[in-house]
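Worked example 2:
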Amino acid sequence: MELLVKINKKLEQRRAILNTIIQNVGIQNKILKSAQILAECLKLGGKIITAGNGGSASQSEHFSSEMMGRLKNSRTPFPSLSLSSNASLLTCIGNDFGFERIFSRQIEGIGTTKDVFIAFTTSCKSRNIIEALNVCKNSNIKSIVFTGQCVHDIDLLAEEIIMIPSNDVQIIQECHDIISHIVCELVEEIVPLPCLVTIYACFDLQH
């Protein structure tokens, strides 16, 4: 019984945060603006670059996978890559230049002014994320940050910040998953690319 009470409490905590987001037009506008920024990037021939640490690294990979694969619509791939994916490159840069440079150095190598960088971070405290945002700012590369409640002046570095009103890492990441899916779906609707008839469309496969 105690465990059932705990489960109910955890679910109520998540519902409370989602209700806050549902009632917050400001957050919803940031979600829309982020999708519009990404759509414009793709229309201009740019790519979407993502990054994160730990659980946020998997969210970074997940977002890029939805872009390169698809979320709902059968379409051409949207160019995207996660800077958190290449273990050899991450350890090379981390060993030679320091862990704080594992993302920023990659951006220096492949980033262009047509691109958009998306950072997933629950705290805004990760040095490698801050370094990456600084490089983007200095290189005129637009950036979007998915984060939780934080005190860092990250708004000076990014075009849009989607801030979850919570300090709970699990809840923040869960909300990031929900919102990133919404953003992906909006991008698919906004970008006027021709649909491709694929095996996925034929069998209506979902994942």
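Residues 3 and 23 are 30 Å apart (CA to CA). Strands lie at 48-52, 80-82, 116-120, 142-147, 160-163.
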